[in-house]
């Protein structure tokens, strides 16, 4: 179900029709708006005397838009920055925030503290060496490979995963 806010014009129309004596169901069919939505608009109009959108409840934000942009820009420049370092950076600009608030702001901006999976660093030299090795031994019989003792640095785990270390 999609929720959308009614425009001021729509709310004014509802109130006008209600004042002219039309019922909820009739207004609902004419304006194609659910009757309980109309009822809510009329109740708010009766209580506050206006049809404009009222200010939302809740604590105002401790950080303005410009400072938020500055905060989001900092970890993109320095991805290894910790939340404590970001907190000190904000304190130097005059904005004191808790670490969880900083974390929440970064999460809302799509930045998450995640550890990248370790991958082998392959240079062009490594790739060429592997290719040369593969081409050299491509026609070797299977019996030759049974006698080879492999001593590479690959770590294999049967249970669990330790990919991040």
Give an overview in words:
The protein has 165 residues and is mainly α. 52% of the residues lie in helices and 0% in strands. It is built from eight helices and no strands. The protein starts with 7 loop residues before the first helix and ends in a 19-residue tail after the last helix.
Helix and strand layout, with pairings?
Elements (H helix, E strand, L loop, with lengths): L7 H12 L4 H8 L3 H14 L16 H13 L5 H11 L5 H10 L15 H13 L5 H5 L19
Summary tags:
165 residues, 0% strand, elongated
Give the number of DSSP strands: 0
Structural class comes to mainly alpha
What distance separates the N and C termini? 45 Å
Low-pLDDT stretches are: none
- Report the radius of gyration as a whole number of Å: 32 Å
Fraction of residues in H or I helices: 40-55%
**DSSP strand (E) fraction?**
under 5%
In brief, what are we looking at here?
With 165 residues, the protein is mainly α.
